[in-house]
Amino acid sequence: MSSKNIKLLVPVLLGLIIYFIPAPEGLSTEAWRFFGIFLAVIIGLILEPIPAALIGFAGISLIAVLGLMGNSGESIKWALSGFSNTTIWLIFAAFMFAAGYKKTGLGKRISLLMVKYMGKSTLGLGYAVAFSDLVLAPFMPSNTARSGGTIYPVAINIPQIFNSLPDHEPRKIGAYISWVAIASTCVTSSMFLTALAPNVLAVGMVAQHDAHIIVPWIEWAKIMLPLMIPLFILTPWLTYVIYPPTQKKSPEAPVWAAEELKKLGGVTFKEYLMLGLAILALVLWIFGKEIGINATTTAICIVSVIILSGILTWDDLLSDKAAFNVFIWFATLVALADGLRKIGLIKYLETNISSVFGDINLTVAIISLIVVFYIAHYFFASTTAHVSALLPVFITIAVSILPAEQILPFTILLLGSLGVMGIITPYGCGPSPIWYGAGYISQAKWWSLGALFGFIYLIPIIIGVFIFI
Prior knowledge:
- With 469 residues, the chain is mainly α.
- The protein has 23 helices and no strands.
- It folds into two domains: 1-84 and 322-342, no CATH class; 86-208 and 217-321, no CATH class.
- It has helices at residues 3-20, 29-47, 52-66, 72-79, 86-104, 106-118, 122-136, 143-155, 157-161, 174-191, 197-208, 217-242, 252-264, 269-287, 295-308, 314-318, 321-342, 345-353, 362-375, 383-401, 404-420, 432-437, 443-468.
- The protein is globular.
- The model has no long low-confidence stretch (mean pLDDT 89).
């Protein structure tokens, strides 16, 4: 039997076993069977024998056909509910922003400009790579597209100028650039709600919880930016100290970037328009709540302008497989998370788990939840699978032990850890395999650096507990 078939068989067998085991006391048969299918979906997302979106789609389809959410009408209405979720449409719209950056060449131009003006030293190159990611982060929810698709093609050419190759002097400059790039994108992924797709998915999931926790873009920024900005500024320097390049100066890099900019030609009208629309989106995400404009409303309206203005064509939208794949995938996961609540599983967990934390100091309990959630990422090759598997449990525990006014800041800190936790392994986030695959950093070194930076990156989150909760 092939490895793929074994990976497919494992979640199926697990789901079947749970399906036919009698439900525990306090849970209905429907809730227990729902849990069996939900767990099978999570294991499937971890093993990924078939596309992740198909796993989620098959899961909601099976639950609907078995009528676990009520009669046939109620079940199909629930199964498709994720596709009307505003958070899912925000993710989809943000993917169109990313496509606009790429098609106009604006993303590449920003990266080259950073190298041209900041790249005279190797440390400066590190900051150029980091700031290129920062500029794009609020508008690109896929750090794979941002770091792997936009920055990687520019940054990976820099070491080659100095004959720093994976098999020839990788520490000269290539290893430093690679680590700064992946470490920076992990930090920026925590900075902004819209900088990482699982951030937005998680916000959608907590909104479906019985506590109806709503996380606005600006509230996320108020907590995460003060914690992440110092970390972002320190990251290239920390890498320079902990994993230093052997070459300290890079006078050729700005010259190369200037030549590449000449090839791009002058800034086009569409680049200016794309930049203006991105800034408008950011302003409305920050202040839109004050004037009654929802973040998703902002996003879909600007996507309409992007297409009507010709930055993207309608065919560009229809052909963006990554955007539609994430749309279907996340819509099914939001529905499954909502199903946990509707079927009574969240209430069951709250009743049976919260007592464990009853005698623990509240601050210790909060920190313990965040640390366990963070470390658990070692077992996940997908941040989305991590969110889907663990977030409902951790939020349920938090809601049961925290005063109402502390639930929102705790939720933001917990979700804010999703970006930075991507640094800990070579498979911790989407762009990790891309930068690891460049070959400049050995697997052993990646694991050791990941553990060290993972510890450092957790510190601001813990500090946030004492500041905001």
